[in-house]
Amino acid sequence: GLQMASQVQCLKVNGNPDAVNGKIVWLSIGMSNCTQETQQFIPQANAFPGKNLKLTLVDGAQGGQTAQVISSPWNSGYVNFWNTVNTRLSNAGVTSSQVQVIWLKEANQAGTTPAQTYYDSLVVQFKRIANELKTRFPNVKLCYMASRISARYASSTLNPEPHSYWTGWAVKKVIEDQINGEALLAYSGAGAKSPWLAWGIYMWSDGSIAQGSNPNVFFTCPGDFQNDGTHPSSAGAQKVGALLLNFFSTDSTCTPWFVGTVCNTTGITQE
């Protein structure tokens, strides 16, 4: 991860290095919760005094666009999702060739799907999404994956417990498979099919019970949720935004490109 982070550099719109006028693009990919949280993260990050001035943050996530939709070319919403991502990049004055960092937060509608089936499908779809990212953004280096927030208070079958909890296990499985050398998830060399994958904050908690050693990861209802107990309220999304800012501004694989004012221009090989 440190090696891949060291390769992030400022790129021109055609993907060639340009330390003077080039940019580094961070892009979110996901569903409704992801876009709500990204929209709170971006202004917080842009106000952060240490943020790299060459870094452009773009929200590519879209409401209702589940892992099943964005990973499946045969799905009726697939083309529209990726076209919208391209439009948002264009509106931000950047291109797909400048995207090097992804924040991925996805899930599926649970309904009456057994939790094990939900998990199995999500693992397959996460891997297809990783391949989509490498195909659509040829210079992408890093992809940080996120769990769902708590669904302890969910009032519908959209994505309740235990499906929300199992989303995190699906993320863990995909990262583990890449570590174990699965060819489908190769992230370096001429045969790269995926970005390097890692956790990009673990956000699930058992409701208001703080998660593990991080006292800031917990969610209360109604304060942090909308009426459905599934989507974050503005306050809940702001909380996630703050967690993201803390992660990207302190993690050892993020600080080389998130913090500072200069572009890396050494030791780079275009793939």
SSE layout and pairing:
Elements (H helix, E strand, L loop, with lengths): L1 H5 L17 E7 L1 H15 L8 E5 L7 H4 L7 H14 L7 E7 L9 H22 L5 E4 L17 H17 L16 E4 L34 H17 L4 H4 L13
Helix pairs in contact: 2-7, 5-6
Commentary on this structure:
- The protein has eight helices and five strands.
- It is an alpha/beta fold and 271 residues long.
- The protein starts with a helix and ends in a 13-residue tail after the last helix.
Number of strands: 5
What value does the average pLDDT take?
94
Measured as a percent range, the helix fraction is 25-40%
Helix-strand string: HEHEHHEHEHEHH
Structural class: alpha/beta
**Helical region count?**
8
Low-confidence stretches: 265-271
Could you tell me how far the N terminus lies from the C terminus, measured between alpha carbons in angstroms?
17 Å
Proportion in β-strands: 5-15%
What multimeric state do the chains show? single chain
Q: Assign an overall shape.
A: globular
Strand order of the largest sheet: 2-1-3-4-5
How can the largest sheet be summarized?
5 strands, parallel
